[in-house]
Amino acid sequence: MSMIGKDIRMERLMNRATGKTVIVPMDHGFTMGPIEGLIQPKKAVFQAGEGGANAVVLHKGNVDSTHRRSGNDMGLIIHLSASTSLSPDANYKVLVCSVEEAIRLGADGVSLHVNLGAEREADMLKDFGTVSKKCQEWGMPLLVMMYTRGDKVLTECDEQYVKIAARVASEMGADMVKVSFTGSIESFAKVVEGSSIPVLIAGGEKAKNIKDVLNNVKMAIDAGGKGVSMGRNVFQYKDPAQLLRAVSKIVHEGASVEEALALLGE
């Protein structure tokens, strides 16, 4: 498959006009079970489409029952790695799907989770290399969720660690990288500067104040970030579709936090 095919797939995952993206990951059910907002995956995917998300992240088993069966179309990213909250080493993500399986399911891209600093970091990096090679062979875009978690990591949002995470993803051949937000425009700009691929911020745990979430999105975009990959703060919000419209207004239109809040009536 040629690189032209890969470019077409990337266009399915990002806004062509802005070169940015709003992705809603829904892989949490594998890790934590049927949590709030994902009890009915089909409903969650429908709401993401209604809100104008550029893409969703799903595990292979949820694709046939949810994506592209109803509602607005959007890009499909199939997640390749996982662990459960019951594991004695939940930071160790193993491959549970292949690039070829994702292609057969109609994926526009695949994603992988790597925890740098974890005890089994070497195994996850080895899997990363294998998946990256396959993605290059098939012309398949690769989003890597890179987190820093381990004994050497004091705070996983610290700029010094997040810079390494983003750089490793670009060095390994990923097409996009999702990292924790570092808390300021100045620090996140350094993360973006050190990566040759688009850098997205994670949404993190469910926030108490949606304004804090929107502030982080705005700062990340102003720092040169290319979008968000936000799960719980979207599908656990009282109106996920409307929140996605507000987030998209910041990401794709450069709106202020106040303008985004006005859309939410807050």
SS element count, helices: 11
**Class inferred from helices and paired strands:** alpha/beta
Largest sheet: 8 strands, parallel, barrel
Low-confidence stretches: none
Succession of helices and strands: HEHHEEEEHEHEHEHEHEHHH
- Residue-averaged pLDDT: 95
* Strands in their spatial order, largest beta sheet: 1-2-3-6-7-8-9-10
Strand content: 15-25%
Distance between the termini: 47 Å
Oligomer: single chain
Radius of gyration: 17 Å
Q: What characteristic shape results from the CA principal axes?
A: globular
Write down how many β-strands occur, each being a DSSP E stretch of 2 or more residues. Answer: 10
Helix content: 40-55%
Structure write-up:
The protein is α/β, with parallel strands linked by helices and 266 residues long. The strands form two sheets. It has an eight-stranded parallel β-barrel with strand order 1-2-3-6-7-8-9-10, surrounded by six helices. A two-stranded antiparallel ribbon has the order 4-5. Helix 8 runs parallel beside helix 10 and helix 10 packs antiparallel against helix 11. The radius of gyration is 17 Å and the shape is globular. The chain starts with a helix and ends with a helix.
Blueprint of the fold:
Blueprint: H1 3-13, E1 21-25, H2 28-32, H3 41-50, E2 55-58, E3 75-79, E4 81-82, E5 94-95, H4 99-104, E6 109-116, H5 121-138, E7 142-148, H6 159-171, E8 176-179, H7 185-193, E9 199-202, H8 210-222, E10 227-229, H9 232-235, H10 240-253, H11 257-264
Parallel strand pairs: 1-2, 1-10, 2-3, 3-6, 6-7, 7-8, 8-9, 9-10
Antiparallel strand pairs: 4-5
Helix pairs in contact: 3-10, 6-7, 8-10, 10-11
